[in-house]
Amino acid sequence: MCQPQKSNGILTVCVSGAAGQIAYSLLPLIARGDVFGRDQPIELHLLDIKPALDALHGVVMELHDCAFPLVRNIVETDDPMVAFQHADVTILGGSFPRRPGMERRDLIAKNVNIFKAQGQALDRVASKNVKVVVVGNPSNTNALVLSHYAPSIPKQNITALTRLDQNRAVGQIAMRTGVNADQVEGVAIWGNHSATQYPDVTHATVNGEPVMPKLGGRQAVAEEFIPCIQKRGAAILKARGLSSAMSAASAIGDHLKSWILGDSKIVSMAVASDGSYDVKPGVYFSFPVRCSAGGDYEIVQGIEMDEFSRKYVSATTEELFAERQEALELCAV
Ligand SMILES: NC(=O)c1ccc[n+]([C@@H]2O[C@H](COP(=O)([O-])OP(=O)(O)OC[C@H]3O[C@@H](n4cnc5c(N)ncnc54)[C@H](O)[C@@H]3O)[C@@H](O)[C@H]2O)c1
Ligand SMILES: O=C(O)C[C@H](O)C(=O)O
Description:
- This protein is of the alpha/beta class.
- The chain contains 11 helices and 14 strands.
- Strands 3-2-1-4-5-6 form a 6-stranded parallel beta sheet. A 3-stranded antiparallel beta sheet has the order 7-10-11. The chain has a 3-stranded antiparallel beta sheet with strand order 12-13-14.
- Strand 2 (42-47), helix 2 and strand 3 form a beta-alpha-beta unit.
- Helix 4 (104-125) crosses helix 5, helix 4 (104-125) packs across helix 11 and helix 5 (139-148) packs across helix 11.
- Bound molecules: nicotinamide-adenine-dinucleotide and (2S)-2-hydroxybutanedioic acid.
- Nicotinamide-adenine-dinucleotide (NAD) binds at residues 16-17, 19-22, 47-49, 52, 93-95, 97, 114, 135-137, 139, 161, 164, 193, 243-245, 248.
- Residues 13-158 form the Lactate/malate dehydrogenase N-terminal domain.
């Protein structure tokens, strides 16, 4: 069950980047009750930057036109202090996009400023029990910066989205083996939401049978399946001319539903590393987690990791610590 901070039982859900394309697919899912439950009334706090406020107002007009019974109030603003006020759940999609010629460091620099300001605002006005999912890229490192500037919010309440990568892996397995997606189990995403992520199928099954041979064995998985998932975002961008939005929104809904309402299945989320699987504390790293109702989760322990998997986990860990170093240097400026 959700535990709204407000005594009237209304859950305050903040969406940043609310005039953007992910929000356009996500807001109806939330407003209809598909994420937090069909009996959970909500107040929407929609945040975007000043130049996008007219577009945001158009989105709000459409939300009114949908006449969703669960939506009790809508706030539209360009001020994070207003948007995060009493927020129970915050979805952070607003970020600076990569432009041609930008180096990764430039992208991190632009986003450090955004997530610094948002972290400080969250720290001051959000519920101390707020649940945050960072979506804007580079999402794991943006989550780290946010957490750095929001010391009063427990680190475990801040997460970044890798459920899209998990869903992509499940979708590919289902397609390649000719089954429905719900017949696939045990896929895990490790590390960064980037091309170094490790979509791990070493323990995955289809109808209870190991997936690896069905995908053609380790070499085929290494040469075809893993790169397909790692580069799926770029492939969609190339095909659509826009980055993924419907699938991202659907994955955000899945992430929050598992986290807030609990899930009998193991799912992947980027969470604060705690030394599990030799990933030192200090980064937001995607692990397989088990979510219990009410917003608690734990990193699943004891998953056997062979040499094949260790190599990938080590590469994505290295990338995240390099991003951390760059971000913290920029924070110190
Ligand atoms: N983690 C994932 O799995 C995943 C998947 C897909 C997309 N993404 C990322 O999610 C982000 C949003 O994607 P989109 O397709 O909705 O982008 P979009 O460009 O359509 O929308 C982004 C919105 O954010 C707003 N914005 C920019 N700076 C802001 C700020 N400081 N505060 C509030 N709002 C701000 C923009 O005005 C815009 O309306 C991008 O960074 C994208 O790369 C992540
Ligand atoms: O927006 C992007 O760069 C791609 C996005 O993160 C995705 O995985 O689709």
